[in-house]
Automatic annotation (TrEMBL):
<feature type="region of interest" description="Disordered">
    <location>
        <begin position="27"/>
        <end position="68"/>
    </location>
</feature>
<feature type="region of interest" description="Disordered">
    <location>
        <begin position="84"/>
        <end position="115"/>
    </location>
</feature>
<dbReference type="InterPro" id="IPR000242">
    <property type="entry name" value="PTP_cat"/>
</dbReference>
<protein>
    <recommendedName>
        <fullName>Tyrosine-protein phosphatase domain-containing protein</fullName>
    </recommendedName>
</protein>
<dbReference type="InterPro" id="IPR029021">
    <property type="entry name" value="Prot-tyrosine_phosphatase-like"/>
</dbReference>
<dbReference type="InterPro" id="IPR003595">
    <property type="entry name" value="Tyr_Pase_cat"/>
</dbReference>
<dbReference type="InterPro" id="IPR052782">
    <property type="entry name" value="Oocyte-zygote_transition_reg"/>
</dbReference>
<dbReference type="Pfam" id="PF00102">
    <property type="entry name" value="Y_phosphatase"/>
</dbReference>
<feature type="domain" description="Tyrosine-protein phosphatase">
    <location>
        <begin position="163"/>
        <end position="393"/>
    </location>
</feature>
<dbReference type="GO" id="GO:0004725">
    <property type="term" value="F:protein tyrosine phosphatase activity"/>
</dbReference>
<dbReference type="InterPro" id="IPR000387">
    <property type="entry name" value="Tyr_Pase_dom"/>
</dbReference>
<feature type="domain" description="Tyrosine specific protein phosphatases">
    <location>
        <begin position="312"/>
        <end position="384"/>
    </location>
</feature>
<feature type="compositionally biased region" description="Basic residues">
    <location>
        <begin position="43"/>
        <end position="53"/>
    </location>
</feature>
Amino acid sequence: MDKNNDNKIPDDIFEEADTKKKLVMGRIRKAQPEPKEPLAKTPVRKASKKKKNAAVVPPSPIARSPAAFSPVAKKIQEEKVNDVLKHLKSPVPRPEEKKSKDKKGKKTITETEEEELTADRMGYKFIEHIGFIETGPSLNTYYLTHLLNMAQPMETHDAFTRNTFKNRNPDVFCIDKTRVKLMDPNIEYYIHANHIKFDRLTRTYIATQHPLPGTLNDFWAMIADQKVELIVSLTNSKTASFPIYYPNKPSTFRNFGQFFVYCNSVIPPKTKYGFTEYKFDFVAQSEKEEKRTIRLYHYPHWVKNTVPASTKVVLEIVKKLRKKRSNAPVVVQCETGVNQSAEVIYVDAMCSMLDSGVEANFDSLFRQMRQQKSQVMTQRLHFLHSIATVLDFIKVLS
């Protein structure tokens, strides 16, 4: 045998080494983060190339928040879409007219029964409107196509710009036309809060942010000036940036400038979907001191960028608001005043209209709300949950 051949390295050793090298390099590539695609390849740029002259409306910074697109949030969204779909598959049947007999034996209908039937018909009409859009995913598409990026009114927000230190979020504007103003024109006053009114509905609302440490007096000045009797709070005051703006223990009081707030009673929640109810005596220490009762309903478990586990949470709030009638605006407060607050206002408005036998067009009401409060309900999850809640209300109503 040739000695040179004895010292020659076999070819299969090179092949084996090459294979190991490829495996190692492959693992290294997997461990490294994938390079970001150039901006020219993003969907936004592609859309702009197709229509060069088309006006692109940027999504709300709230809607683009990381939590809104997390896997958990997406899973919850799909679950809520399925909830709406279940309601659509089993709609409330058309109500039958209930008639009673008069003395002559003829069938008549009382005024109360007529009102109930009218409310039932409006509820059925609402279901038909939702059913016309066919399914839950289609309702989701309807929101993304027609409502999410609807054109904002060209309204000024000068007071918002002048008072940046009184705003929680610099991207959530406070429209000048609908912002809450103090009736005394001689007093310089600003609070990040907007009036919201709907056609054919007597009840009005104020959507506002959670008061900042430096705006507590402003909040109670608004309560005094607007004669408010009902407040809904949807935030958890666990940090200094979200201060408790009322006395939260019975027989205690707090002063906010010239405003005196005394806590009469605290009623804890009766169910896991319930809220804490506070009853206050409120006095504005002015020339004409007037004492009035204010009720505050506090639900602290509504996490940002999500919805409650059950529609019963919002329904319980709506139920309480229906019992406590007031001619003054209902103040609904969340972190920024645009998502949780908007859902409660949106649902309560639709339920109030249906209960009164008035048609509740969810599209029209949404547009009215968006025109009065900038960037309300910028997350589809809140919209879908609102519809599911109203459908549950109709089932209870019927």
